[in-house]
Amino acid sequence: MPTPTLSVAMSVYNGERFLAEAIESILAQSFADFEFLILDDGSTDSSRAIIERYAARDPRIRPFVRENRGLIVSLNQLIDEAHAPLIARMDADDISLPHRFERQIAFLKAHPDYGVVGTWTEDIDENGDSYPVNGAEHPVDHAGLLRAIAQCEPLLCHPVVMFRRDIVQAVGGYHAAFRHCEDLDLWLRLANRTQMASIPERLIRYRHYPHQVSSRHAVEQQTGAAIARMAYRERLAGRPDPTATLETLPPLDRLDSLFGRDGVTHEVRGMIAGALLYSPIGMRGAGFEMLLRHLADGGSHKGLWRTVARLFRFGTPVRAIRLASALLRTPARPPQPQTEAA
């Protein structure tokens, strides 16, 4: 078989609810010169049967079935198995619009200095209805992406990216330590090696629902994201990345030792607490205790009285009262400007 222009990489774990619609959206693309790699990561539902049914119909589908090993291992395996020089990501619960591949391939052909390109998203709920999202759109050029890194804004939507395989392999693919934020860590490691951006067209219907991974693992995700940003700052300052060879991230209290200076744990805890203020799952779980610890260590009060009111709305009045008491006990301190490590 001739080498395809594009390899599509999808990892599936118990994705039966939306899987058929996701697969069909790829098979219906206006650009057809691709192989479709679908890896069943030890599903216990009907995902495997769905994949095998579609593979029997379309020879572009290359199915892989094995025991559960997690998304990062699966994505790295799919990159290694890919035959094409370009790889498009796809998740089992989203819907790619018909001209997605056509637009992204045209962009990468016209911009050889760009190694990764995403698109804007149409956000939907579990029923396919519009899902309201606040915040900035994904950056449309690399300069905008660098500004978004500095401002801790969204960079790229992971399931709609297309990237050059050799560039991602050159930085070691996805790193095992950054579970649930493996994409952010990868974009930050690529930021000074290639250019990245998103096409300002809504070429994927990106689904939000209560039991997706980003909802269930909010605290772990934000912890990894904060550490990934600290590692980015180390690289930017010309120092070795202390996370580069880690298989798992250390407890927060060991971050000063890992990075070789005082204050890293405090800063990371503050970043995590700030990111979880609007998360019902985070504030109902371990994120709340992290917020109290950060406050006790001298963290800023900024926005926290609004968080007290939000905790009542989240149905956690005891935690609202605990936060109000902590705010009254600790002196208010103005937020300190963030500075890059020397």
From TrEMBL:
GO function term, MF aspect, one: glycosyltransferase activity
Q: Which residues form the Glycosyltransferase 2-like domain?
A: 7-171
Q: Which InterPro entries match?
A: Glyco_trans_2-like (IPR001173), Glycosyltransf_2 (IPR050834), Nucleotide-diphossugar_trans (IPR029044)
* Keyword Oxidoreductase in record: no
Q: Which UniProt keywords apply?
A: Glycosyltransferase, Transferase
Q: Which residues form the signal peptide?
A: none
Family stated for the protein in its record: Belongs to the glycosyltransferase 2 family.
Q: What is this protein called?
A: Putative glycosyltransferase
